[in-house]
Design brief:
Elements lengths: L1 H26 L1 H11 L26 E3 L10 E7 L3 E2 L5 E9 L9 E11 L2 E9 L2 E11 L3 E9 L12 E5 L4 E9 L2 E10 L4 E12 L3 H39 L1
Parallel strand pairs: 2-4
Antiparallel strand pairs: 1-2, 3-6, 4-5, 5-12, 6-11, 7-10, 7-12, 8-9, 8-11
Helix pairs in contact: 1-2, 1-3
Length: 261
Amino acid sequence: MKKTRVLEIVILYCLIAAALGLFLELVHPSQMAGILTSLNPFASDQGEYRNGNGNRISNGKMSMEFVSLPVPQEDQKAMVTGNLAKDWQDWSGWADLTAHYDIDNSNCHTEGSCQRIDISRLDSGYLTFAHWLRMPAGAYSADLWIRSSSRSNVIVALKNSDDSSGEQQFEPQKFLAGRAWKHVELSGRCPGWENADLTVSVLSGGASVWIDNVRLERRFDWVSLLTVLMVIAVSVGLTHFLDFVLSKVLAARKPSVQKQR
């Protein structure tokens, strides 16, 4: 009887621990995700989780090394050169423009480095600064800081690169960037994307643009809370069911034991 009760208690504690873990993930998803992924040596999740800050954007502070772009061919329309923040990409090869990426240590939103982009010529198309990431299903919020040496048309978007339907779970932000730092935010619910792209597109030439402190975090949402409550309810119900089954088994064994004696 004692062994059975011990087994029942162990199962109950495991179920409650699992439900509590899901609940903590919803109450403070960024920190919880950071802790769990930091403890997992085989974690392959995209982002700065290993720093425990929950940011799914790798190198969002532009503080890691910068990578030199390949020298463009003379017959290319897009003449894009310079140093690009690690884990970021330039998607401007199709446009007719001249741009130079570089690291900036003195004009950033916070201490450290940021990405500077000088767009000296823009005859057609636009410049796109992009970051690829994986987004499991859930609610998210993204934000970044941006400014420009002169008024520049900018579009910040977060979308599924595998979906060509044009459906948007996150409303793109279109605005005029100026000399003062502007805080841009996106929020929405993702159904689960294996290939998501956060893009900053600059539609104006003859200006320098600075980008800093890019973040993407999971946030609390009621849909997931209901899922957690269902898990807790199922856990409690399963525990009572196991208790009922075990009590019946023990009750059936007692007569047979007594007969043997």
